[in-house]
Predict the structure of alpha-L-rhamnosidase.
Amino acid sequence: MAHFRPVSALLAALFIAASSALPAAPTKLVDQPPVKISEPDNKTILIDFGKVAFGNLRLSCPSDNTGPITFHFGEAQKNGRVDRKPPGTVRYARTKASLEPGQATIVAPPADKRNTKKTNDAHPPAILTPDEWGVILPFRWVEIEGWPGELKPEQIVRQAAFSANWDDDAAAFECSDETLNRIWELCRYSIKATTFAGVYVDGDRERIPYEADSYLNQLSHYYTDRDIQMARDTYDRLINFATWPTEWAPHMIFIAHADWMRTGDKDWIAPRYNRLKTKTLLERAAPDGLIASNAQQIKRTDIVDWPTTERDGYVFTERNTVVNAFHLAAIQRMAELARAIGKEDEAKDFEARFKKTHAEFQKQLFDSKRGIYRDGVGTRHASHHANFFPLAFGLVPADKQPGVLEFLRGKEMDCSVYAAQYLLEGLFNHGAADKALSLITADNDRSWKHMVDSGTTITWEAWDQKYKPNQDWNHAWGAAPANLLPRFVLGAEALEPGWKTVSIRPHTGSLQFARGKVPSPRGPVLIDWTNDRTFSLTVELPEGMSAQIDVPAAKATASVFVNGKATAAERKGERWILDEKLSGAFKIEVK
């Protein structure tokens, strides 16, 4: 069956924000011309749109057309042609259409039953795109067979779906490492391309939100665009369509807390607070405060990492270190949210629970002889995950950090693209930026360098096909550098809800310079630094924002200058921390 419609029936609907089938942030179709048209043989026309996007085609067919035309849509190429048998769930689709001569027509692939189901016994229902759009799928290349004569560029466009609010100029990043620049652009575009559904989905395979995917997507969306609504709409969908992994529930608290830090909007938090409390895992708390896992949870729902081959040999026990780290991080954030909406007694209760459980966490799960955390009570095995999750969540006391950091420095990327978000956060936040950057750009098949070198234009669900044979090639949980690079290399993070006060804390590693634009609810933050024999930082803050400045202490430096004048600052290890907060535009020099 041909999948096409005359354009005249669709013109009024193409830029509708959303249909009743899509209760989500507004999205739209954008016309994209081909980047290249070629003829690999005398029967075939090959069109390259430059990057993968979710969409379909609109064509103007010549008046002399008489027969059906075949279209092959693909995410992958093989030997310079559309790969018609790609691995896993990499997308390929074929359709044959009888186009009306002289008329503009929409050509789309057949619908995928799995990701267009309105009901689903195994998973929540798929997110449906507007009927008016016709079927969309992710593709970069199209092969056309049977086209009469020459295909002119003006005869074909891809109708690509994106957030209607997306601003390509909202964010920027550039540094002295060209590989990092390519990685930033890959990850930035990955966030844009996966806004097609109006909520954060797991790629194209199922088109449903998952809590962990959504939180990582939210972090990167905040650092690449100014939109806040998509994260909120995703949260509201997930609160009614929860998924199964244990640690995915606390991610709902992370999403709400990230909104609070972004917006300072307690009116959005307040009506959601009571249901948020059900995501803490407290129903599984043992008398000592630690979260306990039964046999089914150990076997199935305690996830640690995904896919299962990415767990670094994790040993599952009744008291699971990763599960408890998530629980502690969740109740710590719940205390902040409770206080924000005036529930002081509940805030104090969460803080008391945190203090008690955190003490048990150290007592029962830390191996003092080795200076690292075990996977759980009852095993000596110590995985990557049992150490970087506590580090990322700020659960490792200062006296225990050296051992944990030494352990993590001795390992490579022994985790998935999802868990890498937390591994890298832990390293950046604890003086190991050099290690974090080396992992991002490592010359192996477990890095983002591998992704950009492959030629992909949207991040993958896994490091490589061999690590997850059914992986999607359009998965935003693989786009962590979109938030990590501006947060840690440029160094901009909120210290107060609504970005009233921010931290500007660049992590240089071996980079010579970095510059960029970070979107905030108060306006863009512009940062430009160079790191040579001395360190120089220029910042422009929007009105109503002040910054706490923390900069590298280059070798043989003794003073910090603001706009050419010496200023009070305290040296802590390898950093200078300014005594006074700054606002407006200023230049910092470490001499």
